[in-house]
Amino acid sequence: MALRIDGKKISTEIKDELKVKVEAYKEQGIDICLAVIQVGNDPASSVYVGNKKKACEYIGIRSLAYELEESVTQEELLSLIKTLNEREDVNGILVQLPLPKHIDEDVVIRAIDPKKDVDGFHPYSVGALSIGEEGFVSCTPAGIIQLCKRSGIEIAGKECVVIGRSNIVGKPISMLLLRENGTVTVCHSRTKDLKEVTKRADILVVAIGKPKFITKEYVKDGAVVIDVGIHRNENNKLCGDVDFDDVEPVASAITPVPGGVGPMTIAMLMNNCVEAVKLQK
């Protein structure tokens, strides 16, 4: 029977550890603060932003919420980011994506001070990760590494296959697995014989955005399967990129959806906010 990797439990452990660190900073007179900017009122974004605020409250850091109209101009948004960059009492800045079509996401991400880029999306953060320097790592990939480590899953020397090459998950997780001494293959829409490649994986990370795409035919017996996808199925129930019921019997460990990778993203965002204090010093 596969180990179900419990992201809820592990994320709570991390947040409890962060609570202690935040308390220690408060004793030194340091009050950690995260500024969250949301443009428009996309329902999914509103849920994420609400969860981030709850997590801030839980670990004891201050959160500032900026809820801007969908019609806000790019200049107005950049002006707000500039103000937050300059504020010494703000440690982290997060702009909730996606943004409306008239705003260039890339320009907005680049406008955030890399020392406050707690999402880890700034080119500076990505560059630091690729050459092994200190900096913010995007939250979902960082969470996947913690899920493995805290579930006793060894990465060093393992054959790791990542399906998906997005800037937010696929590329950074492949670099993190390399950093942990895994042997990494990245697959994408042009990969030939996908099943042959994925069946070699000791650790399979799936981030392709297609519901229940990965079945047991893609998975080696005893593999660890990490499912990054999140969708609603025909019955409006949450599911991932992996067909959980089909794959669970052949895997040695697997993340469920919901309750696997999802909760870790917010835990690692909180971790980045706390780490920001060190980087800014």
The residue ranges in which pLDDT falls below 50 over 5 or more consecutive positions are none
Straight-line distance between termini: 47 Å
The major β-sheet equals: 6 strands, parallel
- What is the domain total for the residues? 2
User: Any idea what the CATH superfamily of the largest domain is called?
Assistant: NAD(P)-binding Rossmann-like Domain
Q: What is the CATH C-level name of the largest domain? A: Alpha Beta
Number-wise, the strands total: 11
Q: Could you estimate the helical fraction of the residues in percent?
A: 40-55%
Spatial strand sequence of the major β-sheet: 1-11-8-7-5-6
Mean pLDDT: 96
Summing up helix and strand content along with how strands pair, one would put the structural category as: alpha/beta
Radius of gyration: 19 Å
Q: SSE order in H/E notation? A: EHEHEHEHHHEHEHEEEEHEH
Under CATH, the topology of the largest domain can be stated as Rossmann fold
